[in-house]
Structure formats: structure tokens, C-alpha cells
Design a protein that fits this description.
There is one protein chain. The longest helix is centred in the N-terminal third of the chain and has 17 residues. Strand 2 and strand 3 form a beta hairpin. Helix content is 32%, strand content 49%. The chain is built from 2 helices and 4 strands; from the N terminus they run E-H-E-E-H-E. By secondary structure, it is an alpha+beta fold. The protein has one domain: Ribosomal protein S6/Translation elongation factor EF1B (Alpha-Beta Plaits, 2-Layer Sandwich). A 4-stranded antiparallel β-sheet has the order 2-3-1-4. The termini are close together. The chain is globular.
Length: 95
Amino acid sequence: MTNYEAMFILQPDLEEEKVAEVMEKFRSLVENHGGEVTRLEKWGKRRLAYQIQHLREGLYIILRFKGSKEVVQELDRVFKITDEVIRHIIVRTAA
């Protein structure tokens, strides 16, 4: 399995329960598709470099996992259709 890191930015006005729900959604998605989550960390609310969807802040989440390209494709697809996610990126890491 290959190591990956996904960073996604959530809308800043979400309640803690909703943030936890979204984080668990992505953790279970990776695990249900044969991947292994090594780290899921909330960085907190930060100022964006530029406005995204008329927002100046976002809630940053880091997800490190091991998986196949199918896991990455499914994760990318679900990021795109999740309303709470305003931006995301998935990169392959060395270790």
C-alpha cells in the first residue's frame, strides 16, 4: 500500500458535532475500501489565502492514510460531492 496525505478545508461555521461527523465519514470511507488511516488531525480554523465561496476562513483537517489508487479515487469523488468541504488535495507521501 502507498502512503497518502489528504488535506481538506471545511466551512468555518460548522458545529463541533458536524465536524466530528464529517471526519468520521472520511475515516470510515478509507477503512471500508481497504485502506488504513494512520493519522486524522484537526488543525483548526485558519485564514485562507484568498476567498473561496465568499469565505475568508476555513477549518483545516489532515488525513494520513495507506491505500491503493482506488481508495484515493473514491476519496476524491466523495470530497467533491460533500457540501461541507470547500477545498481538498490528496498527495502521495514518501513515508
